[in-house]
Amino acid sequence: MIETKEQLERQLATVAAIREQIGRVIVGQKEIVEQLLWCLFAGGHALLEGIPGLGKTMLVRTIADTVDLSFSRIQFTPDLMPADITGTTMIQFGGQGETTYRFQKGPIFGHLVLADEINRATPKTQSALLEAMQEKTVTVGSETHALPKPFFVLATQNPLENEGTYPLPEAQLDRFLVKIVVSYPTKEELKEIVLRTTSTTTIQPEKAADGEAIVHIQQTAKQILVADNILDYAVNLLMCTHPAEADAPESVKRYVQFGSGPRGIQSIVSLAKVRAFCAGRMNVSFHDIEQVAIPALRHRVFLNFEGQAMGITTDRILQDVLAAMESRR
User: Which of 46, 73, 299, 317 has the most CB atoms lying inside 10 A of its own CB?
Assistant: First the structure.
């Protein structure tokens, strides 16, 4: 519980310090960094999608360097097996010929886990993350092992490659709090990237927070107030992603096959609370809901065949939903 204004100010200063240290390494991408921080402080997982070379992996590594948490990287490939992620039981032989069994932890046992190119692994291997992302535990045989706290999975995928990839199933996509689309840098940002990466100077971020500080910020964010009318607005927004909803925009009724499930509204509210906290407010506004809606829902709305054939994007659908909601607010 936050008891004093000084405690709240210290936490906001920690958030600002994390932003500053990330900005020392990452050029631009302020919106992407902000969405990742929302996810971090909401205690969820993020899926980053973008073409190669945009710094997705570097961004995740920089966050790991900025917060004092253990870091694991898993490079997903078609031959990766579930035990390569979760770990396996090892047999040990003693000096008298006796045998003992010891669980060897896999790379999933880290505070911050980078699942690089997650869609390159087979569905069997992808499923090894399901329990970890939802229950924050790993079950091997008859034993269940708790993962460290806090625990985050930050996954990346390339939207251009289809050959040799396995699209994530809807159930797994739903376990990501946000899906972040990493955009191409501007001309000025490209110049700065070249200057930073081709010089002899290597910039290293400093530690700005530890795991305990992150957990305290997560607990504070959960205390942010959500008024009934704000919550009703968020619920109505979610319902408008369903084609059977009477108030849904025409584009939803025409192009959407399935709208977002209940995890969508949980994600919207959790992210909106963090956004309000990061702005120094103790209550969620309509604008908070609108700003977090697209990253929270873009991977939870599924187009029908006509929508896919027409090249419609879920972002466009969600923009139509937001426009319709704003006109009725």
Answer: 317
- Does residue 19 contact residue 37 with C-beta atoms inside 8 Å? yes
pLDDT(273) > 90: yes
> What local confidence, expressed as pLDDT, does residue 100 receive?
77
Nearest to 270 by CA among 55, 61, 26, 40: 40
How far, CA to CA in Å, does 150 sit from each of 68, 102, 174, 279? Answer: 11, 25, 20, 23
Instruction: Give the DSSP H or E segment for 68.
Output: strand 67-68
3-state secondary structure of 148: coil
Q: Report strand pairing: 71-75 vs 112-116.
A: parallel
- The residue whose two tokens read 């579930």 is 82
Name 48's bridge partners: 156, 180
pLDDT category at 163 given cuts 50, 70, 90 is low
Q: Note whether 166 and 125 are within 8 A (CB).
A: no
Q: How high is the pLDDT of residue 285?
A: 92
Query: Which tokens go with 260?
Result: 């977002």
- What is the C-alpha to C-alpha distance for residues 73 and 56, in angstroms, rounded to an integer? 13
Contact indicator for 85, 216 with CB cutoff of 8 Å: no
0.85 exceeded by the pTM?
Answer: yes
Expressed in percent and rounded to 5, the helix, strand and coil fractions of the chain are 50, 15, 35
Whether 241 contacts 317, CB under 8 Å: yes
Residue 231: burial class (beta carbons within 10 Å; 0-12, 13-18, 19+): middle
**C-alpha to C-alpha distance for 107 and 309, rounded to whole angstroms:** 40
Report whether 46 contacts 39 (CB < 8 A). Answer: yes
Examine the pLDDT at 69 and tell me if it is beyond 90: no
State residue 29's pLDDT score. Answer: 77
Query: Does residue 195 carry a pLDDT above 90?
Result: no
